[in-house]
Amino acid sequence: MTTVTAGTPEEGSRPRLVLGVSGGIAAYKACELLRRFTESGHDVTVVPTAAALRFVGADTWAALSGKPVSAEVWHDVHQVPHVRIGQSADLVVVAPATADLLAKAAHGLADDLLTNTLLTARCPVVFAPAMHTEMWEHAATIANVATLRQRGAVVIEPAEGRLTGDDSGKGRLPDPLEIFEICTQILARGVDRLDQRWADLAGRSVVVSAGGTREYLDPVRFLGNRSSGLQGYALARTAVARGAEVTLVAANVSLPDPAGVKVVRVETTSELRDAVVSAAAGADAVVMAAAPADFRPVSASDTKLKKADDGSAPTIELSQNPDILKEIAHDRLREGQVVVGFAAETGDDTGTVLELGRAKLARKGCDLLVVNDVSGGAVFGAPDNQAVILGADGAVIDVPLGSKAALAHAIWDQVLARMP
User: What are the residues facing 216 on neighbouring strands?
Assistant: First the structure.
């Protein structure tokens, strides 16, 4: 059995971040992102462009970061800031990243302090784009984003919503909290500064399901389960942090959408099945972290079921729902596709948790099965998780108690090892 241990920063170390800010109206939102970084103990150097300073002044950035701020390569020339800032960074994040900034970064232009910093950085680089929909969808921007991703940069897909003026659509800066989560995930992996493994899922398309399905008995009651969707959302966020294109099929989850993720919302097992099968057609990996209801009522009442005066209960006939994991595993929609399932077990007189997990792995035909011991309600809704990852090839990976993000990274490590 292999045991996974999470890497942690050295005691007393402060990750050194560069927050690049380019000239878009969303620059004011970067103030919240900066606050999250500083309050969580990061050492942040803000490098705005000249255009960004027309939206938020240097004094604001200096007050929030506790450091002097300049957009000029000629400031403190003797310290060679255009080289030193990028060389010493553990991570560079540009938020917002305008179409102009993305174009300069893709073509290696260096006409100000931020673009010089991007050229000298040998650490993970994250871009959080913000622009009008037409600019994001323009062929030039598409090509520039593709170039940056091929080089190992993480370019977060922008959110959809209200833009400037009366416009709305795709191009909105992702929520600062979500950008913060992605950046901290990259830093938490502790990758070598000269090794671009932080984007090891770049160019890969993955599908993740999350939450628990509902099968309605009447307009107000349903059969369901306790799945919160936290583990599935952690899988989606960590996949984005590693450069993947992510589709998240969310069943009855009340969590904010992860940045850079296409979210498909469903309620029932049938809807979950249709959405997963559709998305899986172009995916390199499918991770079924959702908890589908095993059964559904043969028929649902159009009106609320009433209590009987004599105290009797209605008889509800159930039928079995489709086995989504088994279908996806046996009918691979793409050559080399890796399929991962989850098993929430308690153990009983038929076997231990691991014995039941191994039986399920063989029965479903997936490549990996993440086995959770949920005795006493463990795991559901909790921020932490522990599991054993079983492989169809006989691998047994023990992931000790830690954050659900740590387990997600362990799962992606195993998925990546099995990708062609």
Answer: 222
> What's the token pair of residue 141?
């921007």
- DSSP code at position 79: G
Mapping DSSP to helix (H, G, I), strand (E, B) and coil, where does residue 16 land?
Answer: strand
Number of neighbouring beta carbons within 10 Å of residue 48: 27
Token couple for 314: 């209605």
Q: Which residues are catalytic?
A: 225
Q: pLDDT tens, 78-109?
A: 454 557 888 889 999 999 999 999 999 999 99
Q: Is 404 marked as binding a ligand?
A: no
CA distance 146 to 128: 14
Domain boundaries, the chain: 8-199, 205-418
Q: Taking the domain 205-418, which CATH number applies? A: 3.40.50.10300
Percent of the chain whose pLDDT exceeds 70: 91
Query: CB burial class (10 A; 0-12, 13-18, 19+) of residue 254?
Result: exposed
8-199 classified as CATH 3.40.50.1950: yes
Pairing of strands 396-403, 2-3: parallel
Query: Has 175 been labeled as part of a binding site?
Result: no
Q: Which helix (H) or strand (E) covers residue 60, if one does?
A: helix 58-65
> Which among 384, 393, 208, 353 has a CA at the least distance from the CA of 284?
208
Q: Who's near 55: CB < 8 A, 6+ residues apart?
A: 23, 24, 25, 27, 28
Strand partners, 19: 46, 93
- 67 annotated ligand-binding residue: no
User: Does 342 carry a binding-site annotation?
Assistant: yes
Residue 238 in 3-state DSSP?
Answer: helix
Maximum separation of any 2 CA atoms in the chain, in Å: 90
410 conformational bin, left if phi > 0, alpha if psi -120 to 50, beta if neither = alpha
Decide: 22 and 114 in contact? Cβ < 8 Å.
yes
170/130 Cα distance (integer angstroms): 9
Asked if residues 25 and 52 have their Cβ atoms less than 8 Å apart, the reply is no
Task: Give 126-144 pLDDT, tens digit per residue.
Answer: 999 999 999 999 999 999 9
Q: Return the CA Rg of the chain.
A: 24
